Backbone:
Protein backbone atom coordinates (compact mmCIF):
# COMPACT_ATOMS: atom_id res chain seq x y z
CA UNK A 1 0.00 0.00 0.00
CA UNK A 2 1.39 3.39 -1.01
CA UNK A 3 1.53 5.69 2.01
CA UNK A 4 3.18 8.73 0.47
CA UNK A 5 2.44 12.28 1.60
CA UNK A 6 -0.50 12.64 -0.79
CA UNK A 7 -2.09 9.27 -0.08
CA UNK A 8 -5.49 9.10 1.61
CA UNK A 9 -5.67 6.00 3.79
CA UNK A 10 -9.11 4.49 4.31
CA UNK A 11 -9.92 3.81 7.98
CA UNK A 12 -10.81 0.23 7.06
CA UNK A 13 -7.20 -0.35 6.00
CA UNK A 14 -5.72 0.63 9.36
CA UNK A 15 -5.02 -2.46 11.44
CA UNK A 16 -4.43 -1.68 15.10
CA UNK A 17 -2.54 -4.22 17.22
CA UNK A 18 -4.50 -5.95 19.95
CA UNK A 19 -3.28 -7.27 23.27
CA UNK A 20 -4.63 -9.20 26.20
CA UNK A 21 -5.76 -7.26 29.23
CA UNK A 22 -3.19 -6.92 32.01
CA UNK A 23 -3.98 -7.05 35.71
CA UNK A 24 -1.49 -5.06 37.74
CA UNK A 25 -0.59 -6.35 41.22
CA UNK A 26 -2.23 -4.38 44.01
CA UNK A 27 0.05 -2.75 46.52
CA UNK A 28 -0.90 -3.30 50.16
CA UNK A 29 -2.58 -0.42 51.92
CA UNK A 30 0.08 1.61 53.71
CA UNK A 31 -1.80 4.73 54.76
CA UNK A 32 -4.01 5.07 57.82
CA UNK A 33 -6.09 7.92 59.17
CA UNK A 34 -4.86 7.70 62.75
CA UNK A 35 -1.08 7.34 62.43
CA UNK A 36 1.98 7.76 60.25
CA UNK A 37 5.25 5.85 59.89
CA UNK A 38 8.90 6.44 58.96
CA UNK A 39 9.50 6.91 55.22
CA UNK A 40 10.99 3.42 54.78
CA UNK A 41 7.65 1.86 55.80
CA UNK A 42 6.01 3.20 52.64
CA UNK A 43 8.49 1.38 50.40
CA UNK A 44 9.36 4.47 48.32
CA UNK A 45 11.95 2.69 46.15
CA UNK A 46 11.70 4.07 42.63
CA UNK A 47 9.30 6.81 43.65
CA UNK A 48 11.57 9.05 45.70
CA UNK A 49 11.55 12.62 44.33
CA UNK A 50 14.82 13.59 42.70
CA UNK A 51 16.94 16.38 44.14
CA UNK A 52 16.36 18.37 40.97
CA UNK A 53 16.83 22.04 40.32
CA UNK A 54 16.05 23.85 37.11
CA UNK A 55 18.32 22.58 34.33
CA UNK A 56 18.08 19.57 32.02
CA UNK A 57 20.33 18.39 29.21
CA UNK A 58 19.75 15.89 26.43
CA UNK A 59 21.83 14.81 23.45
CA UNK A 60 20.96 12.62 20.47
CA UNK A 61 22.59 11.28 17.30
CA UNK A 62 20.53 9.50 14.65
CA UNK A 63 21.48 6.78 12.18
CA UNK A 64 22.26 9.36 9.49
CA UNK A 65 24.73 11.10 11.78
CA UNK A 66 22.56 14.13 12.54
CA UNK A 67 23.04 15.37 16.10
CA UNK A 68 21.30 17.52 18.70
CA UNK A 69 22.71 18.80 21.97
CA UNK A 70 20.15 20.74 24.00
CA UNK A 71 20.30 22.33 27.43
CA UNK A 72 17.17 23.93 28.85
CA UNK A 73 16.78 25.72 32.16
CA UNK A 74 14.58 27.83 34.40
CA UNK A 75 17.75 28.46 36.48
CA UNK A 76 17.04 27.85 40.17
CA UNK A 77 14.43 25.56 41.75
CA UNK A 78 11.06 26.34 40.09
CA UNK A 79 12.66 29.33 38.37
CA UNK A 80 11.02 32.59 39.40
CA UNK A 81 8.26 30.55 41.11
CA UNK A 82 5.78 32.16 38.74
CA UNK A 83 3.66 30.09 36.36
CA UNK A 84 1.60 31.35 33.43
CA UNK A 85 -2.07 30.43 33.12
CA UNK A 86 -1.16 27.79 30.52
CA UNK A 87 1.36 26.09 32.82
CA UNK A 88 4.72 27.52 31.71
CA UNK A 89 7.18 28.08 34.56
CA UNK A 90 9.03 31.37 34.13
CA UNK A 91 12.78 31.40 34.69
CA UNK A 92 14.79 33.58 37.05
CA UNK A 93 17.75 34.12 34.73
CA UNK A 94 18.17 37.63 36.14
CA UNK A 95 20.34 35.87 38.74
CA UNK A 96 22.86 35.24 35.94
CA UNK A 97 23.51 38.98 35.79
CA UNK A 98 25.92 40.56 38.25
CA UNK A 99 24.76 43.01 40.88
CA UNK A 100 27.23 45.31 42.67
CA UNK A 101 28.42 43.80 45.93
CA UNK A 102 26.53 40.51 45.50
CA UNK A 103 27.74 37.00 44.69
CA UNK A 104 25.17 35.12 42.60
CA UNK A 105 23.64 31.76 43.48
CA UNK A 106 26.45 29.84 41.76
CA UNK A 107 29.30 31.62 43.48
CA UNK A 108 30.27 34.06 40.73
CA UNK A 109 31.64 37.35 42.05
CA UNK A 110 30.09 40.52 40.60
CA UNK A 111 31.65 41.72 37.36
CA UNK A 112 30.93 45.20 35.91
CA UNK A 113 30.84 43.77 32.38
CA UNK A 114 27.88 41.60 33.46
CA UNK A 115 25.90 44.30 35.29
CA UNK A 116 22.26 44.72 34.30
CA UNK A 117 21.81 47.09 31.36
CA UNK A 118 18.97 47.56 28.83
CA UNK A 119 19.26 45.15 25.91
CA UNK A 120 21.93 42.96 27.51
CA UNK A 121 21.86 39.20 27.96
CA UNK A 122 23.35 37.71 31.13
CA UNK A 123 26.35 35.41 31.14
CA UNK A 124 25.48 31.73 30.84
CA UNK A 125 27.27 28.49 31.67
CA UNK A 126 25.25 26.48 29.12
CA UNK A 127 27.76 24.60 26.97
CA UNK A 128 25.80 22.28 24.67
CA UNK A 129 28.50 20.79 22.44
CA UNK A 130 28.81 18.78 19.24
CA UNK A 131 32.19 17.68 17.85
CA UNK A 132 33.00 16.22 14.45
CA UNK A 133 35.91 14.35 12.92
CA UNK A 134 38.09 16.91 11.11
CA UNK A 135 39.05 14.39 8.43
CA UNK A 136 35.62 12.97 7.58
CA UNK A 137 33.27 15.68 8.81
CA UNK A 138 31.23 13.01 10.62
CA UNK A 139 29.74 13.74 14.04
CA UNK A 140 31.69 12.01 16.80
CA UNK A 141 30.10 13.22 20.04
CA UNK A 142 27.18 15.26 21.35
CA UNK A 143 27.36 16.22 25.00
CA UNK A 144 26.50 18.79 27.62
CA UNK A 145 25.52 19.05 31.25
CA UNK A 146 23.29 20.50 33.92
CA UNK A 147 24.75 22.02 37.06
CA UNK A 148 25.01 25.81 36.96
CA UNK A 149 28.60 27.01 36.86
CA UNK A 150 29.76 23.37 36.93
CA UNK A 151 28.38 22.84 33.41
CA UNK A 152 31.46 24.30 31.73
CA UNK A 153 34.06 22.09 33.40
CA UNK A 154 31.88 18.97 33.20
CA UNK A 155 31.35 19.39 29.45
CA UNK A 156 35.02 20.10 28.79
CA UNK A 157 35.99 16.98 30.69
CA UNK A 158 33.53 14.80 28.76
CA UNK A 159 34.97 16.07 25.46
CA UNK A 160 38.53 15.52 26.69
CA UNK A 161 37.84 12.00 27.97
CA UNK A 162 36.17 10.84 24.76
CA UNK A 163 38.19 12.66 22.09
CA UNK A 164 41.66 12.75 23.67
CA UNK A 165 41.63 9.70 25.94
CA UNK A 166 39.41 7.47 23.81
CA UNK A 167 37.29 6.05 26.62
CA UNK A 168 33.63 5.03 26.29
CA UNK A 169 30.67 7.33 27.03
CA UNK A 170 29.88 5.32 30.18
CA UNK A 171 33.48 5.69 31.35
CA UNK A 172 33.35 9.40 30.55
CA UNK A 173 30.29 10.08 32.69
CA UNK A 174 31.59 7.96 35.59
CA UNK A 175 35.02 9.59 35.56
CA UNK A 176 35.84 11.74 38.62
CA UNK A 177 35.51 15.48 38.05
CA UNK A 178 37.25 18.61 39.18
CA UNK A 179 35.92 22.15 39.12
CA UNK A 180 37.47 25.61 39.27
CA UNK A 181 35.69 28.91 38.54
CA UNK A 182 38.44 31.35 39.55
CA UNK A 183 37.09 31.57 43.09
CA UNK A 184 40.41 30.63 44.66
CA UNK A 185 39.43 26.99 45.30
CA UNK A 186 39.77 23.93 43.03
CA UNK A 187 37.30 21.16 43.87
CA UNK A 188 37.85 17.42 43.41
CA UNK A 189 35.32 14.63 43.82
CA UNK A 190 35.53 12.04 46.58
CA UNK A 191 33.35 9.86 44.37
CA UNK A 192 30.62 7.42 45.35
CA UNK A 193 30.79 3.63 45.42
CA UNK A 194 26.98 3.54 45.47
CA UNK A 195 26.71 5.50 42.22
CA UNK A 196 29.79 3.95 40.63
CA UNK A 197 31.74 7.21 40.47
CA UNK A 198 35.42 6.86 41.33
CA UNK A 199 37.12 9.42 43.52
CA UNK A 200 39.92 11.63 42.22
CA UNK A 201 43.44 10.25 42.44
CA UNK A 202 45.23 11.58 45.53
CA UNK A 203 48.51 11.81 43.65
CA UNK A 204 47.02 14.18 41.07
CA UNK A 205 45.53 16.39 43.75
CA UNK A 206 48.79 16.45 45.71
CA UNK A 207 50.71 17.41 42.56
CA UNK A 208 48.39 20.35 41.86
CA UNK A 209 48.54 21.41 45.49
CA UNK A 210 52.33 21.46 45.14
CA UNK A 211 51.94 23.85 42.21
CA UNK A 212 50.07 26.28 44.44
CA UNK A 213 46.44 25.30 43.85
CA UNK A 214 44.11 25.63 46.84
CA UNK A 215 42.59 22.15 46.61
CA UNK A 216 39.67 20.64 48.47
CA UNK A 217 37.51 17.53 48.15
CA UNK A 218 33.73 17.40 47.94
CA UNK A 219 31.32 14.48 47.65
CA UNK A 220 30.24 15.21 44.07
CA UNK A 221 30.79 18.34 42.00
CA UNK A 222 27.09 18.92 41.30
CA UNK A 223 27.22 18.52 37.51
CA UNK A 224 25.09 15.96 35.64
CA UNK A 225 26.08 15.24 32.04
CA UNK A 226 24.93 13.19 29.06
CA UNK A 227 27.16 11.76 26.32
CA UNK A 228 26.18 10.28 22.95
CA UNK A 229 29.02 9.15 20.68
CA UNK A 230 29.30 7.80 17.14
CA UNK A 231 32.25 5.54 16.31
CA UNK A 232 33.96 5.47 12.90
CA UNK A 233 31.98 2.34 11.97
CA UNK A 234 28.70 4.16 12.69
CA UNK A 235 28.02 2.46 16.03
CA UNK A 236 26.21 4.80 18.41
CA UNK A 237 26.60 4.53 22.18
CA UNK A 238 25.08 6.69 24.89
CA UNK A 239 25.44 7.20 28.62
CA UNK A 240 23.74 9.33 31.24
CA UNK A 241 25.50 10.52 34.35
CA UNK A 242 25.41 8.00 37.21
CA UNK A 243 25.36 10.98 39.58
CA UNK A 244 21.67 11.20 38.73
CA UNK A 245 20.53 7.69 39.44
CA UNK A 246 17.22 8.03 37.56
CA UNK A 247 18.99 8.98 34.32
CA UNK A 248 19.53 6.43 31.57
CA UNK A 249 21.44 6.63 28.30
CA UNK A 250 20.50 4.32 25.45
CA UNK A 251 21.14 3.74 21.77
CA UNK A 252 18.44 2.31 19.50
Residues:
Amino acid sequence: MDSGPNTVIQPSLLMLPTCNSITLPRRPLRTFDNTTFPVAYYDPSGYTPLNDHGTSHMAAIDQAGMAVSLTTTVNLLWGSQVMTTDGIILNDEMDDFSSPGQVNSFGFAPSPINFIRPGKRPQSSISSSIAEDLETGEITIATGSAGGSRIITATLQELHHYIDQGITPAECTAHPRWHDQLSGVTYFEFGSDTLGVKGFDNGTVAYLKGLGYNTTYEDLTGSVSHVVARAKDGTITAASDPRKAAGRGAAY
